Amino acid sequence: MNNSVNNSAKKINSEVAANHNCQGLLYQIANVLLKADKIQNVLDKAALAAIESMDAFTVSIALLNEQKDKLVIEIIKRADGKTTPMYVKEFALGEGVTGRTALTRSIISVPDIKNCPYFSHKNKRNEIGSLISAPIISNGELIGVLNVSYSEEKQFSKSEKEFLTILSAIIASAILNSRLLEKTESEKELLNSVIENINEGVLVVDKNKNIIVWNQYLEDITGLSADQVVGKSGIELAKKIGLKNLLSVFIEAVKKRRKDFYLETKFTTAKDELIWVGIAISRILEKGADGNTVVIIRNISKEKELINTKNELITTATHELRTPLTATKGYLSMLRAGDAGVLAKKQGDYVEKAYESTERLVSLVEDLLGALRIDENKVNISKEFFNLNRLVRDAIENLKSKSELKNIEFSFNHKNIISIYADLVKTKHVIENLIDNAIKYTKPHGKVEISITNNDKETTISVSDTGIGIPKQHLESIFDRFVRVPNSLSVKAGGTGLGLYIAKNYVEKQGGKIWIESELHKGSKFIFTLPNK
Amino acid sequence: MKVSNKKSVMIIEDDETLVSMYKEKLKNEGFRVLTVTDSKLAMQRVRQGADLILLDILMPNLNGFEVLKRIKSDAATKNVPVIVLTNIGSESIDNDRKLAISLGAVDYMIKSLNTPETVVKRIKEII
Fold first, then answer.
1. Shortest CB distance from A369 goes to which of B88, B111, B116?
2. Per the CB < 8 Å rule, is A322 touching B21?
């Protein structure tokens, strides 16, 4: 009796001791296997770990294929180090020991291979005596099967089965880790290949403005390789390769807390080619990547050329129009004035109408060229002192004749004589444009009022009419190109929709502001300011 | 020695159509008109005497500003008032005006924004 108790105690003690050893062993195995690595390395280490920890003869690991209908043996290892030829590499679910383990998702132990009806390795029957097979499961999903075999027949104990269960769980995690790593690597490679192969420069700087990405395109156009620039200051680099204006724009954008901005500039490549580049800068404000800035650099020389060609075309065409326009207008005005003899009433009427059309032609061409110059950034401001009152009076005089038919009343409000420091030609253009519009859109017997005032900061000029007014939804876009408010009068009044676009540009280029107040059917008031300095 | 009491205006302009137009108007208004279409000959003709010069800026062969400079630096011609003419669309219209005035032109008029009448009106104000 005592002996049996003693024996039981010994058995339990040794089992407890064995347990401790097992835990320690499993911990070590986990440490090794769970380091992310390529799948083949992981399987290798796993098989070795199994052979050593379970004192096995051979170990094989089969993985479930993508279609999840077959298990494919990926690795076989032998304790004696010899290689084992693989006779049967694939098992359908339920086929052989491997297949059955996969199907039942539980450990299958075969203590005596000889008598196993479903063991499929015909040849191995000589070498293997017993086999235990465990499913490799992670997150409830079957990944594969772990087969541990011995040369002799063997009964598998409960603790051995428990050990195997934990070991296969560790192997499951290791395989998962490895696959995640592979996925990340291939995504990274994909992204990298995109960045390296696209036909645009990609540059990323971190929050300290040091370069972290510099792609092939940039290497090609600057002659500087990624090795030379990564980790270095982006600011220093920009100075070095002649992109100083890029820097100043960037710093300004950061100050104004803008997220995206774009600029175009000339650049000389490493091959001494002068190109136009469009630079799009985006500051990344997302968690994790916060503080990084992405810069995309694109060769826009072709686009620039196209625009230049278009502009040249328009310029040439309009230049050619000048002389015939001037001549037509000139002779019509001489006819009108009676230089070729007194005209009969009807003749006079016809000539008058022709003359007015010619004047409209001239202003259309002028508008086109004005808009063109704005586009090409060729608008220069040259300021001088001049008498604003006289300018306004002259403008009213010039345009009064147009309004005579409509019987419009003009009034000019001013408290004093204002000597203004501004661009004469452009200011004149703006005022005449506003008065012209006022006349166009005011009903007969309406009023056009021009007022000028100033304070120590700025001068304010306003032109108001008692016209049809402008609906609220159009107020925002009225200064945009080609915008003409749809209404019955605007169809008659004609125009290109460029007048206000040009006026706005001329005012803002002088440092001023222009805006409109309007009420439908009551009238509109255009106001603009010009700074005193 | 002046043959008549009529004032003379010299037009230095390369476009024939416009030359004949201004000439027509000036003659109607009682001016004598001399014309130069080739700006290279301009200086020669100007020295022969004129009461006012209408000078086109955009000319082939010789820059109108060059001609203006020469007129204003030549003792025989520097006191002749010059009105500079140009047309819409010339690139630097804004700077042109300042330059013309600074070189001694008495006025700067844009052809297509004016008519022969307004040009003559201005001429009459000057001479």
1. B88
2. no
Q: Is A185 helix (H, G, I), strand (E, B) or coil?
A: helix
Nearest-by-Cβ selection for B98 from A315, A362, A382: A382
Chain B residues near any Cβ of chain A (below 8 Å): 15, 17-18, 21-22, 24-25, 28, 87-89, 91-95, 97-98, 111-113, 115-117
DSSP states along A458-496: EEEEEEEE-S----HHHHTGGGSTT----SHHHHHH---
Structure token digits, residue B102: 């600074």
User: How far is it, in rounded angstroms, from Cα A472 to Cα A511?
Assistant: 26
Cβ of residue A318 closer than 8 Å to a chain B Cβ: yes
Statement: the pTM of the whole predicted model exceeds 0.80: no
d(CA A421, CA A381): 11
Annotate A272-311 with three-state secondary structure: CCEEEEEEEEEECCCCCCCCCEEEEEEECHHHHHHHHHHH
- Residues 350-409 on A with a CB inside 8 Å of B are 362, 365-366, 369, 373, 378, 380-382, 384
Q: Number of C-alpha atoms within 13 angstroms, CB side, residue A231?
A: 4
ipTM of the complex: 0.88
Buried residues in A159-186 as b, exposed as e (16+ CB within 10 A): ebeebbebbbbbbbbbbbbbeebeeeee
3-state secondary structure of A134: strand
Min Cα–Cα distance to chain B from A420, Å? 17
**Cβ–Cβ < 8 Å for B83, B122:** yes
CA distance B31 to chain A (A): 14
User: A334: which chain B residues are within 8 Å (Cβ-Cβ)?
Assistant: 21, 24-25, 28, 115-117
Residue pLDDT tens, chain A, 533 long: 566 666 666 666 666 666 777 788 888 888 888 888 899 999 999 999 999 999 999 999 999 999 999 999 999 999 988 877 766 688 999 888 999 999 999 999 999 988 888 776 555 557 888 999 999 999 899 999 999 999 999 999 998 999 999 999 999 999 999 999 999 999 999 999 999 999 999 999 888 888 999 999 999 998 889 998 899 888 888 877 777 767 776 777 666 666 778 888 888 888 889 999 998 888 887 766 667 888 899 999 999 999 888 888 887 887 788 889 999 999 999 999 899 999 999 999 999 999 988 988 888 888 888 888 888 777 888 888 999 999 999 999 888 877 777 788 899 999 999 999 999 889 998 999 999 888 888 888 889 999 999 999 999 999 999 988 888 888 878 888 777 766 655 555 556 678 899 999 999 999 999 999 988 888 899 999 999 87
Query: What DSSP line would sit under A419-456, residue for residue?
Result: EEEEEHHHHHHHHHHHHHHHHHHSPTT-EEEEEEEE-S
Alpha-carbon distance A402 to A357, whole Å?
12
Choose among A290, A292, A275, A305: nearest CA to A202: A292
